[in-house]
Amino acid sequence: MKSHVNRIVVLGFAGLLATTVPALAHVGTGVHDGFAHGFMHPFNGLDHLLAMVGVGLFAAQLGGRALWLVPLAFVSMMVAGGVLGFNGIGLPFVELGIVASVIAIGVLLAFDVRLPVAIAMALIGVFAVFHGYAHGAELPPGNDAMTYVGGFVLATALLHVFGVGIGLAFHKLPSASRVLAGRAMGGAMTVVGLVLLS
């Protein structure tokens, strides 16, 4: 059973990584429009992808109400950040904030940190603003704007669900294996974040 769960997790994570390109959030690099472009945007940067799956993993690590409140906080604040980006309201250190989210979530997972739900929501919400800003900065004008928003919101929610699913699969493992798996995932995220930072 344990090897079966491990195989599913590794294959699923590898599949997600295969859909990405080794780029950052690429604020301002061209105009994208429509639902499909919005949906693909979170998959176009390893930083976005890891952070969004990491939010789901972190929510599963906390358990209880955090399973839906932490991802909801991310999606809500991401939309708020998207409004800032779309309207050209300045937000400093966007790329740094996005990479910092990957590192911070990786550390939270690696050390099995159990924050109160409200604090976890606030922390994740702050990071989400930077991710949303990157999406909003590429939001197309006109009628396609809302379909673009729908696309990246749906993709984000699905990545959160995927992360929660992996996290809940870890809970079926023996305690020592669960902690080891969480540390391995968190450690890998942290290393990737530090590489992106450099």
From TrEMBL:
Keywords: Membrane, Signal, Transmembrane, Transmembrane helix. Residues 1-25 form the signal peptide. The chain crosses the membrane at residues 41-60, 92-110, 117-134, 146-168, 180-197. It comes from the Bacteria. The keyword Transmembrane applies. This is Urease accessory protein.
